[in-house]
Design brief:
heterodimer, A: mainly alpha, B: mainly alpha, 60% helix, globular
């Protein structure tokens, strides 16, 4: 199947960040070799990117930096969080423990009882198609441990306590 | 050879505060440029910039990302979203803020540091206006990619979208900028070649 120039130009963006699969990268090179328009587009984009980078760069004033560094110096790394932050951490941990315990209880009732509940809770918490799909996949696999992990990670992510792992998606699908 | 981010963070955790100075120096430009592209005012950008670092230091025990700049961008993204929500402002460029000036015009005078003056003023101004005219999502991806050098996977995580969505936003941002800067092609060193349309697509 022949590539469109539009697909080629999207792939060029991914090529820059080395997020293109080797097979797609090879296909991109084939297209570029036969398409002067896309080769021109790449040159134009590279020039524009550099101009934009120079035009958009800004930095804080020296006084702002000095003030910031002074504040940071008086705040040791990994210092215990302040009262509100500590309270929030405790509440989040308690909520997570309760939710996980509740889900575990539901799972014990039967092989499928808890699964729709988990799906509903996650969908309500964040109406994100990426996550919804991940939950659907978990449902299909009927792997309860994976579902529980997903849910716990989701809760922690909401509080910024864990790295969110966006479920794998084919970055080259659009290219 | 300069220390890696991890090495600097380790040094800072051991109490060497000068390691933090190095980190701030390393990332101040991409981070501040990104923040300023949304606030449009230096005073506001200064506040957000400082708050990002303070939050980063407070949350240091939870940091386990490989890309420290990506983490800073994520904190900045969340702060900016909160800020705009509190102000009940949309991220519309035509929206008038407290100064009764649209963001497009506020951005005009925001970058007055010595570094910015190196760029061609007129062209730089047109580029800034063209970037300011992008939708907030597109502008964010564009700034994270060009100024921050983040990968699309990292940007997708911050924006909580799929990689293809982040890629699509960047693609449309580039198309819009090409169209907006059509007349500047010669000055940009593209040999006065007009941008091509959709090609064979």
């Amino acid at each position: 199947m022949r590539w469109t120039c539009d697909a080629c130009r999207r792939a060029l963006l991914l090529e820059e960040t080395q997020e293109l699969r080797p097979r797609v990268a090879a296909r991109l090179q084939v297209h570029l070799a036969s398409c002067p328009a896309c080769r021109g587009y790449r040159e134009e984009w590279m020039a524009m990117r550099e101009s934009a980078r120079r035009a958009l760069v800004a930095e804080p004033d020296r006084t702002v930096q000095d003030r910031l560094l002074h504040r940071l110096a008086t705040q040791p790394a990994g210092s215990s969080p302040g009262k509100p932050a500590r309270l929030r951490l405790i509440l989040t941990a308690a909520a997570a423990a309760l939710m996980v315990a509740g889900l575990a209880f539901m799972f014990r009732r039967g092989p499928t009882d808890g699964v729709p509940c988990l799906h509903a809770v996650l969908t309500i918490l964040r109406d994100d198609p990426v996550w919804t799909r991940a939950v659907l996949e978990a449902e299909q696999s009927r792997n309860r441990e994976a579902q529980l992990k997903l849910f716990a990670r989701h809760l922690l992510t909401l509080e910024g306590m864990a790295v969110e792992e966006v479920p794998e998606e084919d970055p080259n699908a659009g290219a | 050879m300069a220390d890696s981010d991890e090495a600097l963070l380790r040094r800072y955790r051991r109490g060497q505060t000068e390691a933090l100075t190095e980190l701030v120096e390393r990332y101040k430009r991409p981070l501040y440029s990104y923040i300023l592209s949304f606030t449009g005012q230096r005073s506001e950008a200064d506040d957000v910039f400082q708050e990002v670092w303070l939050r980063a230091i407070r949350a240091m025990p939870f940091f386990r990302r490989r890309n420290f700049l990506g983490w800073l961008f994520r904190i900045a993204h969340n702060l900016l979203v909160d800020r705009f929500r509190r102000q009940k402002e949309t991220w519309s460029l035509e929206e008038v803020g407290e100064e009764q000036t649209p963001l497009k015009d506020r951005l005009k005078d925001a970058r007055t540091g010595p570094l910015e003056k190196l760029a061609s003023e007129e062209l730089g101004e047109r580029i800034r206006r063209a970037v300011a005219a992008l939708t907030p999502d597109q502008r964010e991806v564009f700034m994270m990619r060009t100024e921050g050098g983040l990968t699309f996977r990292e940007i997708a995580r911050i924006q909580r979208v799929s990689i293809n969505t982040a890629l699509g936003r960047m693609h449309y941002a580039v198309l819009k900028l090409r169209a907006a800067l059509r007349e500047d092609y010669a000055q940009l060193g593209w040999g006065g070649r007009p941008p091509r349309g959709g090609g064979r697509s």
